[in-house]
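Summarise what follows for lecture notes:
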Amino acid sequence: MMPGGRFESGGAMRVLSRQSFQDMPWANGGGRTCELFRLPHPDRRDAFALRLSIAEVAEGGPFSHFAGVDRLLGLLEGEGMELSLADGRRLTLDAPGQVVAFTGEIGIQCRLLGGPLRDCNLMLARDWGRGDLERLSPADGETARLEAADLVLLYLQRGEWSRDGEDLPSGSLLLLENEAASLRAKGGAIAWLATARRLPA
């Protein structure tokens, strides 16, 4: 594992603690981002192939521009936000667990529907791969089954999680490469699942 949660090829499931995340305040003072994981782009220096982060948004404003990137944004906590896109579309997140998708190039203005919120942001370089983002909220004692993919990231937002009888720290990030997994959940467990599939060479 490289510093800052950067991935090197490997086999078994890995667990990243909060101490490995990178916390960054926004230059405009409107919030802060906690980068959970960044996968460097194989062909472009200083670019990412995949990035997963959690943002604390204190006020509305414009979104940053990310050329060549596809984005998926999910609401973790808060009353939500409305996104006004430059092409005239409006996307609304007003319930935790909702996810919207858009390109990183398009101009976006964000308006908060209430107070501060937290969101989960998955970004993928379009020339590297495709991905999905969803919230998991299994019932108490239920088993959550993760299907194998090129890369699977699971952010344990809250509750109690375990695998094969071993407890997993709440707030940590699980990484799996081409491996399925089954996790036991209880205590109002919630997690965010990001899956990525590399484009064929």
Observations:
- Residues 21-128 form a domain with the Jelly Rolls fold (CATH 2.60.120.10).
